[in-house]
Design a protein that fits this description.
Blueprint lengths: L8 E4 L11 E6 L6 E4 L3 E4 L5 E3 L16 E4 L5 E2 L11 E3 L1 E2 L5 E2 L3 E3 L4 E3 L14 E3 L4 E2 L2 E4 L2 E4 L23 E4 L16 E7 L2 E3 L10 H14 L4 E6 L15
């Protein structure tokens, strides 16, 4: 089921060659996982669903409406302090509270509605020390270790993820941790056989593989690659093609001298 419908107002959560991070537009066509968006002041371009977030509905004043418990992200500077503590940098996420003055707050800072956007829904993920995880853009990161009040990944230096494992502290949603990384087992005589597969671009319903496509050792490996390419190239369709059967002619014809 598509995440967005025609008429939805959306914001880009990633930077691409066609539109910038934070660009706002209206969904014009619900095209599977890559809806076409009429970007304000830019033009109409397709975008991956994973790189869009739904803007909150406006109330009678025309300002976005947020309620207690909403998970939100800071999208521009200008917030003011309510107390001491961390700064409210762009990309900072928090759960909405409403203080005694009626202001939106994270407990330390207050925010105007146009400084915030709703975070996309993410599947809960529990991080464990020593394990590896897959980012939204398909990278393997880890091993995990405790880092301040969140988590760090050995391969990512001092970068930090929120303690729920989903949001990198910074304006980089492509680094969300979406699943534990499970390496495919090494092949052995007792392991079940896997079926080779390739990934090919699909245009107008026709597959267009490269002259020398990479042969992935399993359908799952090819599917992972197709998902990575789909995120990298919004609006383009990538198919997974499995070797179902094969034939080879092995006939030797001897000719008389």
């Amino acid at each position: 089921m598509a995440k967005f419908k025609v008429g939805d107002r959306v914001r880009a959560t990633a930077h691409t060659a066609w539109y910038a991070l934070g660009s706002v537009g209206t969904v014009k066509e619900d095209n599977s996982r890559a809806p076409w968006v009429d970007w304000d002041g830019i033009g109409t371009w397709a975008a991956s669903e994973d790189e869009l977030e739904l803007l909150p509905a406006a109330d009678a004043t025309g300002k976005p409406a947020f309620k207690v418990g909403d998970r939100v992200r800071v999208i521009r500077d200008g917030s003011s302090p309510k107390g001491s503590g961390h700064g409210a940098n762009i990309g900072h996420t928090f759960t909405v509270r409403i203080d005694e003055d009626g202001d939106i707050t994270d407990g330390e800072w207050f925010f105007y509605p146009d400084e915030l956007s709703l975070c996309e829904e993410l599947t809960p993920l529990t991080i464990e020390t020593g394990k590896f995880y897959r980012t939204r853009d398909g990278r393997k990161v880890g091993p995990a270790y405790r880092h301040h009040d969140g988590w760090g990944m050995g391969s990512e230096g001092g970068k930090m993820w929120a303690k729920d494992g989903h949001r990198y502290f910074g304006n980089a949603p492509e680094t969300d941790l979406i699943a534990e990384w499970i390496d495919e087992p090494n092949s052995n005589d007792n392991a079940p056989a896997t079926t080779p597969a390739i990934v090919a671009l699909i245009e107008n319903g026709q597959p267009k593989p490269s002259d020398h496509p990479k042969v992935h050792k399993s359908e799952q490996a090819a599917t992972d690659e197709a998902e990575r390419l789909a995120v990298k190239y919004p609006g383009q369709k990538f198919g997974v093609f499995v070797l179902a059967d094969s034939r080879i002619a092995n006939v030797v014809i001897r000719r008389a001298a």
